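Encode chain A's predicted structure.
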Amino acid sequence: MCMRYSGISDCDIANGKGVRVTLYTQGCSHRCFQCHNPETWDGNGGTEFTKKTLDKICKLLDRPYIDGLTLSGGDPLFSANREDVLSLCKEVKKKFPQKNIWLYTGYLFEEIENLEIMDYVDVVVDGKFNFMLRDTSLAFRGSSNQRIINVKESKNQHKIVLVDVDK
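Encoded structure for chain A:
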């Protein structure tokens, strides 16, 4: 594994529905103005993601009140992260098929919908953070251009299906 990460939140309610484990990956090429995690931009920063890290995430997910895993950053789809993020998603879905996976990325869904990782991700929060569209009243995203997308429904219906975060 060559992915690096800046941290793991073991009981997160701010980055997806329910109680979640959140992995903050290192590396981001989007570098959005006023990003809330600029320390994660450097792909060489943080800590190396190892088998021990994977085991820790699985142990954290193996609690009945945890709804799923959130992948944030940085950008989990930063080029150096993609292979390891895919492996992580496969492992989580294999061990915890009832848990959902949310992925935050600066890419638009239309740019990534055909990536293999989308077969394992349940929800994508897409789009670069846009400071001019910043809205602190929005659930699970920072600016109004970002969408919360149900990946499987969007692929099945061949159109973007948004998640209703108020349910």
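The first strand starts at residue 4 and ends at 12.
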